[in-house]
Amino acid sequence: MEKKKPIVELELYLIRHGQSQGNVGYDKDELTPQEQHDPVLTEKGVIQAQKAGKHLSNIDFDRVYSSGLLRAVRTATEILNEQSKEKPLYIFPHLAEAGLSAEYETTPDTLHQINPLAILAPEFDSETPLLIPSDSKNEAELFKRAGFVLDHLRENFNNGEKIALVSHAAFLTYIVFSIMGFTSETPAYDINFANTGITRVILYKKGTNSYGDIVFDYINNTEHLGSI
Fold this sequence. Notes:
By secondary structure, this protein is α/β, with parallel strands linked by helices. 30% of the residues lie in helices and 18% in strands. It contains seven helices and seven strands. A seven-stranded mixed beta sheet has the order 4-3-2-5-1-6-7. The model has no long low-confidence stretch (mean pLDDT 95).
């Protein structure tokens, strides 16, 4: 029997943002809406993002998507800075963190202070908000949103494209679980995604890879961080 040649349809890199001020806390009791919902990277977080960018610099990404939250935008920008040529950053509103309040909004001008080339991904209507809020306790809703992200990618990229998604620990967990076939009815598990932890998933054309149509090459890789 002739052995089929594996055909890669999509090479997906899932990346958590670098350390944010929200991860380490603030030295005050009252926070502004931005500090509460959209903290920026710490100095350490910027260094982590830069190291992730250098680690991934040999990969010519076809697209880099980010949530519209500042910590993800900055991380994605540092990754794009290490690409061989200038590329836009595409905002994928559905990549926002689980539990983001509908009260918090952002604007293109705010994002452009970090990356002038950050734009809403062209496949979305111009009226689409830059952030999609959600209830962190509504797992069915979050699985649905993760499924939307994956369906969107699989419908639009199936010729071996290399796509990076820069998002957040909780929501990345829902994406990974959705890839694995879990649902909101599956017993609870967790993945302790580190800041700038990288997960590489290879999606093959159905039936062409002897090890399965979906292969996790690695999950939450942090070797680029060294001792920091």
